[in-house]
Amino acid sequence: MSPAPESGAAESGAEEPEVALREPRTGVAGWFRDRSELVVSVLLAGAGAVVIVDALRMSTAFTQRGPVGPKAMPLVVGALLVVVALALAVDVLRGGRGVAEGGEDVDLTAPPEWRTVALLIAVFVANIVLIDIVGFPIAGTLLFWGAAFALGSRHLVRDPLIAVALALATYVVFGELLGVTLPGGPLEGVFSWGTAAGGAGGVGEL
Q1: What is the model's pLDDT at position 21?
Q2: Three-class SS state of 154
């Protein structure tokens, strides 16, 4: 009766190499393909270097309000990006790899939805063209509604209402809270507190 456990152990031991072992690719191209995560590490290091260089070149001629200058936070963020990039590179070179997705609900053979991409591009281009003519409240409404339509939503009552709410909320936040002037168009007099009052005041204070 002793051979039974041995056969079970042999079966379990035979299954493990099929999952754990994978033949490495040969050549320089194969080496880089097996360690493609290094691309992410390079991008992170590049982003960190850009942040650090911009922080060092930042002008500090204006009055400083506190012990920490404006360069401190960008330098910290840039340094952390570089550290994360180095840690990721070391992990990849030591054999660490990301687990590939199974793609159970994704059809990798399906062609891309070019119609959706074209509709989204048309919506953004229309927003750029119309924002100075009809103002952000109307152009933003068309932007949000058009994006929802391009992505497949067909609720003719709910979608426009949500689009109007999002456009007005964005207009209020930028004009009233952030002091950033957005084009009001024909509705600029109605929302003068968000443009003429709030926006002009913000610009004057600068």
Answers
A1: 43
A2: coil
Q: Which residues contact 122 (CB under 8 A, 6 or more apart)?
A: 146
107-146 pLDDT, tens digit each: 666 777 888 889 999 999 999 998 888 888 899 999 999 9
List all residues 6 or more positions away from 37 whose beta carbon is below 8 Å from its beta carbon: 88, 92, 96, 97, 98
| pTM, entire model | 0.45
Q: Quote the CA–CA distance of 148 and 180 in Å, as a whole number.
A: 26
74 burial (CB, 10 Å; 0-12 / 13-18 / 19+) is middle
Q: Closest Cα partner for 91 from 37, 49, 19, 43?
A: 37
CA–CA gap between residue 201 and residue 150 (Å, rounded): 38
DSSP state of 106: -
DSSP code, position 177: I
Q: How many CA atoms lie within 13 A of 69 on its CB side?
A: 10
